[in-house]
């Protein structure tokens, strides 16, 4: 109690510091809890100006508070008079208590911000835990570093030399300026936010959290080491020289590590190459062969050959031909220790087998593109991406008339779909591979009513919202299967919903497209742009609206039917529109007069019009 009383008196003696803490904390909470955010992790963006300010605030407060503590306890006088056996223990206890109070305040702020974001997005505990963790990594760790540095300066100032304390502060200040220059590229620094994705990038920022923590801990240890050097080395210039060398080494080593982790430029550059490859592609009617089977798969993102596929031939042939995604290049093909000759042109691979019975394909160690990245921290290999050999040829990527890149994924027929989530390395051996998806990164796996959901973490919401999404997908299926009789015996109508995958769209695609979903054999995948304005309701409600035109398009591959069916389904199932269908209509080739005429029809008339469209489409086929 006496210790708390002493601390309370100290706190009252630094009123200006307390006012500064209150003002900064309120501004921090206000900005990070902004109810008009587009993405629940948008507060990460504010680090570019709130972290530098926070570092200065907590450095100043920590220095002033600890200087007050050290000056208020005359250790030498207590030692001489033998009043207390271990007088330094009093200082350590007070410093520890203030640090605990500091941590409690940071935890409270993190809890308030996480709670506010959860309420804004109608989410639950999963999102709360995720936001709390992100806040601690992006804000609390730099503030702890600042607090410890302020403590170090006050100790040097009180017990050693004022001159050394000032020099240590100068070295630290220059170090912080250098770090922020490297981090935010201050030469092009803008106070206003012009581009969100470099800060809340859906593929990269959230997949290097461990590295982010380690780098901040290295900075903390380095500053403690520099303080130790200043304290122990009597010659000031020698201490400065050693500290500066240590700081320079740590700073540029960690910056080099961070630059290797920033894959966005590499992947976007590969997107650009892929774009021109598809743009200049000459289509041919070369026939694929089906006299082979996939009998082994090995995926090790960190290895020299990240993907290895074993093919077994049904009978001896001199040549086989298959199709794979253009972004994945084959390095070499081996059989019985010998390399086989092969030719890869775009998505078509031709292998001279020379009568062998099996072979192993070794993929090149490439990051791929932002469509389907393959790195140690990010793996996105959905089965519909054609990342392993196919016996049929399909155009996975398309470029529309406006020059926009799309992934024109065609729905595949699968007897069984296997989705592997979160594994470091994966291998499969069997007689015949059906449909295999491998996903690793900032994703959460959830089980809802015998349905597995794999959700990008910033899209997390309440369990009841996932239930509502599943119920709505069931209702959409019921209406479509009742409306279009030719669907009744298909997998779509007969299979239960086994998996729902909600992942962020590629950086290179348009924010809304009819290609943003696949549906096959009870497995639903939705590609969602995380920067669309979905802050007024959970992403599951957004997916409900998307599914009304994405699912019909995947079933019929017909723009008009999918859009007209969407309007019908939204009215029939009372789905509140957010304007996404209107955007799709504006991008489509549908005549505005025919669309306006259709929207004014009654539900019965809309139903008849849809049935007639489907019949006309079947007659043309």
UniProtKB/TrEMBL annotation:
Residues forming coiled coils: none
Segments traversing the membrane: 12-31, 43-61, 99-125, 137-159, 171-193, 213-231, 238-254
Translocase among keywords: no
The keyword Nucleotidyltransferase appears for this protein: no
Keyword field: Membrane, Transmembrane, Transmembrane helix
Descriptive protein name: ABC transporter permease
Origin species: Anoxybacteroides rupiense
